[in-house]
Structures are given as structure tokens and as C-alpha cells.
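FW: tagging you since you asked about this chain on Friday. Here's the raw sequence from the shared folder, copied in full. Didn't touch anything.
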Amino acid sequence: MFAFQTHKYYLSLTKVAYIKESKSVQVTARIFIDDLEAALDKKYNKSFELATKEELEDTDTFINKYVSSLLKITINNKLIPFKYLGKKYETDVIYIFVEIENIDAIKSIEIQNRILLDEFSEQQNIIKLNINDKKKSFILNNDSDKDLLKF
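HL: got it, structure written out here
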């Protein structure tokens, strides 16, 4: 009867890992589908119908554009563009995969994540880093939308 329940919290989880062997930074963002859909619909004035048969054919293009404009990764004091790899739906969550290649070493990494912050004032974006065998987690929100880790 209650196929779609509204969640009462606004949260995303973004995992960032440096893989020394492949010299790449792999990023996985986990976002509630309905929240991302609301943000995309509003920003691009379209009805995306995520995770349904009616989903727009070019949804990946818009997700890439949206995420690229709001997720910024600065490595060794240089803003590095990432490559959008794709998405996967699971129940009420979308996983978005991006990658940065050709990173020889990381001395510092700064993550700015403004995804959904304009859409939901209560939004919190949890970041979990696994860089150079060091793990750090932090929460970003409208008051503090970026954090820096140095090695």
C-alpha cells in the first residue's frame, strides 16, 4: 500500500578512494533517487522519471552535468576534472560512479560537495575518504561545503 514513503532526512554518502596500483581516484556517490530527481527536474526543467521505464534517454548526460557542476575534487592544489562512468539503481538509491585517472601521488585532497544543497536546506553530504591508507570522514552542508585532507 505504501510503495513510496517520503524519507524525513536529506543525506548522501560519497566514498572517495585512491587506488595506487591503477593511479586512479574512484568516487561513488549514493543519493536518494527522489531527491536527485527533484533537483534534476527543477534545474533542467524536465521530467526525468529516474529508475522507471519513462526515464529520459539522455539522463546520464544530465546527471554527469549536474554532478560535475557541484562535486569538485582538488588534488595537490589542482582542480581535477573527473570522468563519469555511469549509474546504478538499488531500491530507493542511485549510485553514481566517477573516476580521476593518472594520479601518481596524493599529498592533499580537497572535496567540495554541493549536491542537493540548493534543493534541500537540511541536506548533509557525508564524505568517506580512503587515501594513502588513511581514512577520514566528514559531513558537508550549506554552512561548510568542503574539507581538506593533507598527507
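FW: The chain has a mean pLDDT of 93.
HL: agreed, and Strands lie at 11-19, 24-32, 71-75, 78-79, 83-90, 93-100, 108-113, 124-131, 134-140, 146-150.
FW: great, closing this out.
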